[in-house]
Design a protein that fits this description.
The chain contains one helix and ten strands. It is mainly β. A ten-stranded antiparallel barrel has the order 1-2-3-4-5-6-7-8-9-10.
Length: about 190
């Protein structure tokens, strides 16, 4: 009975829906401890809601990654992730905005499967009509008791609007904690 407000929030968001969107992202990551590199491709179908909704965006991230070469044992790590992500964002003024996004996911790989979650607060700075700059912090951890999966990431980079429906994003990411990572991402988002 106490969780009946969740469906009500969802229905309120649908009543003010903006429409579908899709994103595609490529990431190149380097483990700074081992030197191992991996690449990932993520498909991000989603639904955008009005700017006044509590939840502005719901996405399903479908991610596949693999190491670029086998490790010293001859194993090449491969991983597939499904992640449901929600985003809340608001303008602070004409130039600055904030967002809070996060969600729950499941990773399936050739070593061990786990459930995980993350939360990501961020700031955006709009520069002119086309450019936007993002600075964010992401805290990731397993939610099923798997050890060694706590990572903090700092994300930064620009976005460029091609038109009112399409944008390109570039992110540089530094990860700390149980993993020491450096990566970059390039992504494309399209609203219908």
């Amino acid at each position: 009975m106490k969780h009946l407000w969740l469906p009500a929030l969802f229905v309120c968001g649908i009543a003010h829906a903006e429409g579908p969107r899709i994103g595609l992202e490529y990431e190149s990551e380097r483990d700074n401890k081992t030197g191992m590199r991996s690449v990932a491709v993520t498909l991000k179908p989603g639904w955008e809601f009005s700017r006044d909704s509590l939840i502005n965006l719901v996405e399903l991230l479908i991610d596949h990654s693999q190491d670029t070469r086998p490790d010293e044992t001859g194993l090449r790590d491969r991983e597939t992730k499904l992640f449901v992500r929600l985003r809340h964002n608001r303008k602070l003024n004409e130039s600055f905005a904030y967002y809070l996004r996060g969600g729950l996911g499941r990773t399936v790989n050739n070593q061990n499967n786990l459930s995980y979650a993350y939360i990501e607060p961020g700031l955006k700075y709009k520069s002119g009509e086309k450019w936007e700059w993002t600075l964010a912090y992401r805290k990731i951890n397993s939610i099923d008791g798997t050890d060694g999966k706590s990572v903090r990431k700092h994300l930064a980079g620009p976005s460029y609007s091609l038109n009112r429906y399409s944008e390109i994003e570039l992110r540089l990411i530094k990860g700390y904690g149980d993993k020491n990572l450096t990566s970059w991402q390039i992504g494309y988002n399209h609203k219908f």
